[in-house]
From TrEMBL, chain A:
One BP annotation, GO: amino acid transport
Biological classification of the source: Bacteria, Pseudomonadati, Pseudomonadota, Alphaproteobacteria, Hyphomicrobiales
Name by which UniProt lists this protein: Amino acid ABC transporter substrate-binding protein
Family: Belongs to the leucine-binding protein family.
Matching InterPro entries: BCAA_transport, Leu-bd, Peripla_BP_I
Key words, A-Z: Amino-acid transport, Signal, Transport
Domain of life: Bacteria
Organism annotation: Bradyrhizobium neotropicale
Length: 385, 291
């Protein structure tokens, strides 16, 4: 009898644990938690954490009459393509995950594209390279606005408002830096200005030798495409060398971190890409929530990933499945005007990337004045006003 | 800007970076010369020193001199602890010691990440503004680095060349067993050398904190540079570290200013390859004796 009871208890526990496993969906976070881009990675993780928290506090994500608890599994790719492939393998094979927030860097996105496509894993990348999206990657989405979207309208607005004609730019010598360099060069040419791009190895922290040379004939300094820390260091060192011309950061959300690194005086007057509008109540609430939980200023990309996950969860509900990623992706493609923390969002990019997997939201130009970023223009892919 | 001014500016830039490399490389090469350990955790002590200074001086507004002493002192204590727990067991065991040092580096870096977060910190400059001489701009923050590093190297030279413990260190570096036979307490000299090396790294971190920024990841690049420099100058050679550090600093500055940043990295490694091929013991290193 005792043996029978033991078997029954074991069988019940197996059934219970199987049921528990079935009632959860795990979201992988694949980003560079170590290195200069760690602030981006933490923003991505926080967005996933908040999205999971919100769903779980209501009893889970209701899909086809069942409720699924959202779990999170994270891996660090250390900003290296080889490590990115290993991390993605672990997420897909070891953990059996179908949904990934990441990859973060362009090199990582390109390196893992074949893996995630063949494994039908839905990814939400931060990679700025145009190669991150395409008809050959039907499961890759980008919930952030990239250089490809904001470069032309922002540069046109900056060239018109500052009269800079000879602009120099410093960018890391990797996939991300080179893609941004080409995009920025073309945007400045269209705006009637010349951009000289200088590449450096990502580990570099002393830019004075390069700045000594390139600032001699420049009337503008472009720092878009650098990590917040690097942008701040370059700005600080350029000001130390006596450069007083305009500084543009037409990429990323670097303002808060750059201000910390460069200091208020060096950053004064700098034009920055502003990905979010904190006058929107939901966006402001997200910013406050981040600050309250993590005790530091939020990286501006974070709410985009939260919005991307809101869209993903909406697609899961509509597709009535948490397993069939083909069906979920097809449903996700068809979503438009989805209410998110960033306003109503949809997808764009058919013409540019051959697939509508680029998030469609407005963006802004800000200027640092007395240590505070003020919105000076609102933009879409056509123009800034 | 005329060519003379650019040249002078380039030399100053090279000297500043070179002097920091010198401080890093001296500590690195001392630990190798005396303990025969290639300490890849050396840059993490630079990071810890910079962080402590950023907290004391930058965040808590403590007086500069007190912050410097406390930051170096606390890092030295951490170094002593690491020597006791880890490095002591690997004296003379170059391969295992090197692997252990990589482990210590990862532990220190990730501990800093957990303790202080990934966000970069800035430290207000000790002296702000620029010194302009005949059109050449010298940021005061960088001049402080050069002066501080020169003072440290001179003091170290006096310590090694003219004190009892310095002479003991040189004797142990030459032959630990013979030194012990002569009555030198090698069990004291080993940790003393390690702590001195760590203190130099911490001082380099303190000097650079106001010029650059401070984050848990700043230690790797100086470690790699220190390694390159001691290969050029000669493993275990303090004068070699000085020559190698200044050489790399100037190459970096001249190549970065007149050619390109990427080429400056290539040039440094070409110099390393050239030295290894033509003079394997380094510019000022001694040949290992055949058994």
């Amino acid at each position: 009898m005792k043996r029978f009871e033991l078997v029954a208890v074991l069988a019940a526990s197996v059934v219970c644990s199987a049921a528990r496993a079935e009632d959860s969906v795990t979201i992988g976070v694949h980003a560079s938690f170590s290195g200069a881009g760690a602030a981006f990675a933490e923003g991505m993780l926080a967005a996933t954490d908040f999205a999971a928290e919100d769903v779980n506090k209501d009893g889970g994500l209701e899909v086809a009459g069942k409720r699924y608890k959202i779990l999170i599994k994270q891996y660090d790719d250390r900003y290296r393509a080889a490590d990115a492939v290993t991390a993605m393998d672990r997420l897909m094979i070891q953990d059996g995950i179908h949904f990934v927030v990441g990859p973060m860097g362009s090199a990582a996105a390109v390196a893992t594209k074949d893996q995630t496509t063949s494994g039908k894993v839905i990814t939400m990348t931060l990679a700025f390279t145009p190669r991150a999206l395409g008809a050959d990657a039907p499961f890759a989405y980008r919930p952030v606005i990239t250089t490809g979207e904001f470069s032309d309208p922002q540069v046109a607005w900056l060239a018109k408002n500052t009269a800079a004609k000879q602009v120099v730019s410093l960018l890391p010598n990797d996939e991300t830096g080179q893609q941004i360099g080409v995009a920025n060069f073309n945007s400045y040419a269209k705006a009637g200005a010349k951009l000289q791009v200088e590449y450096f190895e990502r580990e570099r922290v002393d830019f004075v030798p390069i700045l000594t040379r390139i600032l001699m004939k420049a009337d503008g300094l472009e720092l878009g495409g650098n990590s917040p820390t690097t942008a701040g260091l370059i700005l600080k060192q350029a000001r130390e060398l006596g450069y007083r011309g305009p500084v543009f950061v037409t990429g990323g959300d670097v303002a808060a971190e750059m201000l910390k690194v460069a200091g208020k005086d060096a950053a004064e007057g700098t034009y920055v890409h502003l990905p979010i509008d904190t006058s929107l109540p939901d966006t402001a609430a997200y910013v406050t929530r981040f600050k309250a939980k993590y005790g530091q200023n939020m990286n501006g990309f974070s709410p985009f990933f939260y919005a991307g996950l809101q869209m993903l969860f909406t697609a899961m509900k509509k597709a009535a499945t948490v397993d069939d990623t083909t069906k979920i992706a097809t449903t996700l493609d068809g979503l438009s005007d989805v209410p998110t923390a960033m306003g109503k969002a949809g997808w764009t990019g058919q013409q540019k990337y051959g697939i509508k997997h680029q998030i469609d939201l407005p963006f802004y130009v800000g200027q640092i004045k007395d240590g505070v970023v003020t919105k000076v223009a609102t933009c879409d892919v056509n123009a800034c006003r | 800007m005329s060519m003379d001014i650019i040249l002078a500016q380039t030399v100053v830039n090279g000297l500043m970076v070179g002097m920091i490399y010198v401080l890093m490389a001296i500590g690195f090469t001392m630990v190798f010369g005396i303990m025969r350990i290639v300490n890849f955790a050396h840059g993490e002590f630079y990071m810890v020193g910079a962080f402590l200074f950023a907290i004391l001086y930058g965040s808590n507004g403590m007086p500069f001199a007190v912050s410097v002493l406390l930051a170096i002192g606390a890092t030295a204590l951490l170094g002593l602890l690491m020597e006791r727990i880890v490095f002591r067991r690997f004296r003379g065991n170059e391969l295992n010691g090197m692997i252990a040092s990589v482990g210590v580096a990862l532990i220190l870096q990730n501990s800093a990440l957990l303790l202080w977060g990934s966000s970069a910190r800035t430290v207000p400059p000790v002296l702000s503004g620029v010194l302009s001489v005949g059109g050449i701009v010298f940021p005061w923050s960088r001049l402080v680095v050069i002066i501080g590093a020169i003072v440290a190297v001179v003091l170290l030279n006096l310590l090694i060349g003219h004190t009892r413990i310095g002479r003991a260190m040189r004797a142990v570096a030459q032959d630990a067993e013979i030194a012990q036979v002569q009555g030198i307490r090698v069990d004291v000299i080993f940790p003393a050398a390690f702590v001195l090396g760590v203190s130099l790294a911490a001082f380099a971190g303190v000097l650079m904190a106001p010029v650059l920024s401070v984050s848990p990841f700043i230690g790797l690049a100086p470690t790699l540079k220190a390694f390159v420099i001691v290969v050029i100058g000669g493993l275990g050679s303090v004068p070699g570290a000085v020559v190698g550090g200044l050489l790399i600093g100037l190459i970096e500055s001249f190549a970065g200013t007149f050619v390109s940043a990427s080429l400056s990295e290539i040039l440094q490694f070409l110099v390393v390859i050239g030295v290894v091929l033509l003079r394997p013991q380094g510019l000022l290193g001694r040949k290992e004796r055949e058994a």
